[in-house]
Predict the 3D structure of the following.
Amino acid sequence: MIPFLAQAQDPMTRAELIADDPLWLILLKAVVILLLGPILTIFLIVWERKAVGRMQNRPGPNRVGPGGYLQSLADALKLPFKEQVIPETADRKVYFLAPVIAAVPALIGLAAIPFGPEVTIFGERTALQLIELPVSVLLVLAGASIGVYGIVLAGWSSGSPYPLLGGLRSAAQVISYEIAMGLAIVSVVLYAQSLATSAIVDAQQSGWYFYLLFPSFLIYLISMVGETNRAPFDLPEAESELVGGFHTEYSSMKFAMFFLAEYVNMVIVSAFATTLFLGGYLFPFVGADSPLNQGWLPVLWFFAKMFVLLFGFIWLRGTLPRFRYDQFMKLGWKVLVPAALVWVVMIAAIRAIRNDGNVSTGQILVIGGIVIVVIVLLSLLLPEKKVPDEDSVPVTGGGYPVPPLNLKVPETTPRRKALQAKAKAARKQEPAALASTKEGSNHGDV
Amino acid sequence: MVLAQESAATGIGIYLPLVLLFALALAFAVFSVLLGPLVGPQRYNKAKQAAYECGIEPSPQPLVGAGRMPVAYYVTAMLFILFDIEMVFLFPYAVSADALGLWGVGAVTLFIATFFIADFYVWRRGGLDWN
């Protein structure tokens, strides 16, 4: 009864609650957050393999453990006992450092994510979050971009062409999509008026941002797949083009670190999306004072939302083919970034007009709708750009696109030249050879 | 008491858990990387140590690290710096957008429009095309 009264008398802010943690509690939280990454990775891999297997009409792993669910645990235990092969051309210091640089930011990325509201752990009041900063959002973004150093250094230090290409692609890809991601987050910050993750969750009590800021949510979803190098944007490790991409030359535990970093990054961006757009740990349609949003239950809501997003990753991988690199960069720079910028300006203007002037949201929406309709109509009036289609196949064969049958083989390939020279030489020798055989046969006759 | 609490919640001390987690994560990663050579087998083989190129003779590489890279990546990196700086300025604006009001919207629109000029210049010059 007494702690109950004390709780009621002493309302503390989230930051104060977390700052008051004793050292053992900080350590406990840190260890839990550190282990959450590898544990979720092990689960995610087997879940992905089983789900993709079902999507392709095959059972997936089903031998190790109950239902095959211990498969990736067995794989993880196996990896340290594999030989590590280091190419002669590698820059050994950077080669060893790169997996560490990739894994560490991934492992600390979950620190700023609020998993739940105020709870009591062994009699100590605290909030389910390792650190509460006024700039937590920037911390998560910074962690996401430092991870790419590991990838690009891995590609560079291997001293081999495929990893270099994979590392470069990855770097270009992550930095391109990070801008779109950051701009999507700007609009969330604009609505929440704070860069603290817990404040953003609190601000969503009146409505989750995924429908209030739907374009931002879409841009974030696309860029989070690009940022984590996952299918259909898995160009850095496109196995049909680059063998394994940046980790071609890596083996044993160093390879495991890259794998871990990739999957933990998926968890981080999904957890971040949950926090920013899906109301974090809040249960829908009830207030923060409802018993559904108190104690340990919200952790369940948080993970449920996160797993929906993680399943989205798996679903994408099972559904879509890989993008071509130029298409991918085009989508990032020519569609997502300009769209995100225009959207940020638009909502900033709408908010300011609504707050400053005596204009209602309805009026803004009507005027905005009219403007959009006019723009769409004007774009319809523009003449369509004719694209000269040089490579097009002429339609022959009764309306079916049959490739032309009179294709000319170029005469210039080295092999063809060599063959022609050989044939020429053979023709030169032929008359002489024929004559000699004739003579021989004549002699025989005589 | 109130003062002490406030300093606890706003001072540099709030970063302590992050430092702790960083140390733990670093220890985990370094331990994992060093574990491989300790417990794994080591069988030397000349062909195994060569750079992997699908079985063909590896193409000659510089003595340390990798060689040249396509120039398009540099353009992307420059553009990234441009837009990242834009984002750095947009975050503080977004936090205080309500306080700045319409004046702020005008200022930030001008700011973004300036970046759009740079973006369209690169776009028209073909800096965003990958062929």
Q: What stands out?
A: Residues 23-55 of chain A form the longest helix (33 residues). Residues 14-357 of chain A form one domain. Chain A has one domain: 14-357. Confidence is low (pLDDT under 50) at residues 1-9 of chain A.
